[in-house]
Amino acid sequence: MKIEDSKLTFVKDYPIKGVNFIDINGVLAHPIVYHKVINSLCRQVQKIKQEFSSLAILTPESRGFLFAPTVAYKTNLPIVTIRKKGKIPNKPYRFSIQNEYDSYEMEIDSDILSQFNNYIYIDDILATGQTLAHVSKALRRKQKHIVLALHLTAVSGLKSLRHNNPILQEIPHKEIIK
Hints:
This protein has 178 residues and is of the alpha/beta class.
């Protein structure tokens, strides 16, 4: 899908000065566009689904939650959520994330994480890639792997920063909206 057809909007200097935010609300407010995005994500998942055993969809709170559950449902895959600190009641596996404007603790339910070896990561925007890189490192400590990362779109101006991150170079990734 082309960016001009996507209903994405761009907000300068949000949430802090110097960061240009990509707002996904337009995608969510237009059912035809949302439907196209979900179907595109599902096609990507179906392409690799048979290649991996012990496969689940993994998604970080909160905007990934708007896309990943529907994709999991339509592709008949389990979903594992990455939540903010204090939101996992059962044996949280905690790790830190630092991105371009924030740092915070995230958690995954250890019992559920242990059930799967391979993950398809789904989130909304790929910016610097720090969230994806930190999640990948946390999973690797448990001998788990992200076999594909799917995003609605990527911030083109940060491509060189992502390209210089060796962790991101090891993860196949696709953007639905170019």
